[in-house]
Specification:
The chain is an alpha/beta fold and about 180 residues long. It has two domains: about 140 residues, Rossmann fold, CATH 3.40.50; about 35 residues, no CATH class. The chain is about 40% helix and about 20% strand. Helix 1 crosses helix 6. It is globular, with a radius of gyration of 16 Å.
Length: about 180
């Protein structure tokens, strides 16, 4: 039974929900999934090496993927180069379909360049905009970003932009990665 180490870094909980949905898809394909919240613990070298595939799902906050995901990739970059990997960026610009691919997502492109990661699966997924839950400063900054990018700026709005069908397709792709020989593309 192939195994997947599916790690995530979430700020407001939407990335956790996305990672859980992907893990359920992998399990539905018969794979074993180790779902790990990188803000709670970083997997060991042995855990990374034991996995048939690794997926990293990370939220973007103020233009950068969350620090726990960055720490994980910095610690295990060489190990990840030897196995099938998926990198999923969760950000609000991915609410636009053209911003979901490596070529269309500046966040995803920058993340891959900074980490040197060469994933077999790489995509951006839209998260959730939840102004009422944000602290004053976060609400102000996110409204500014939304104004610049043509998104909603009403401070009372909550919009889930996540395309759950795309999340399911990515979960299926991650399950297929685990069936590949190590290092295969």
């Amino acid at each position: 039974m192939p195994s997947v180490l599916l790690c995530y870094a979430s700020h407001d909980g939407q990335t956790r929900r996305i990672a859980e949905r992907m893990a359920a898809r992998v399990a539905a394909h018969g794979g074993r999934v180790e779902l790990t919240d990188l803000s709670e613990r970083q997997p060991t070298a042995a855990e990374v090496e034991a996995a048939d595939a690794v997926a990293v799902v990370a939220a973007v906050r103020y233009g950068h993927h969350l620090p726990p995901a960055r720490r994980f990739l910095a610690a295990h970059g060489a190990r990840l180069a030897a196995k099938p990997v998926a990198a999923i960026s969760v950000n609000l610009t991915a609410r636009k379909p053209e911003k979901r691919s490596v070529t269309g997502s500046v966040y995803l492109r920058k993340w891959l360049k900074q980490t040197g990661l060469r994933p077999q699966v790489a995509e951006a997924v839209a998260g959730k905009l939840d102004y009422p839950r944000y602290a004053w400063f976060d609400r102000l900054m996110i409204r500014l970003i939304m104004k610049i990018t043509g998104g909603p700026t009403d401070p009372g709005v909550t919009i889930e932009f996540t395309d759950w069908d795309a999340v399911d397709r990515l979960g299926d792709a991650i399950a297929r990665l685990a069936d590949q020989p190590s290092g295969a593309s």
